[in-house]
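The data are set out underneath:

___
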Amino acid sequence: MSQCPFDDYFKIRETSEHLLEYIDGFVYMSPSPSTKHQRISSKLHIKLGNFLEGKHCEVFHAPFDIELKNEMMKEQKLSYQI
């Protein structure tokens, strides 16, 4: 397995139908979530959204990419932004 430049990661994503993550120079394919995972994620999204209603932040549901540090891109299942 060889490393991939960060810019090439975005080119690969444009032509791929898979969920991909970029970590420390390597591209990883993420599996589709299970039904149980989706149920839990949906319930958390609703509860977090209700809790944050009227506040200065938003809830985002998958797929949603977050750049955690320079040259690391993770596909998040659930996140919120202040």
In short: The chain has a mean pLDDT of 81. The beta strands are 19-23, 26-30, 58-69, 72-81. The first strand starts at residue 19 and ends at 23. The chain has one domain: 6-81.
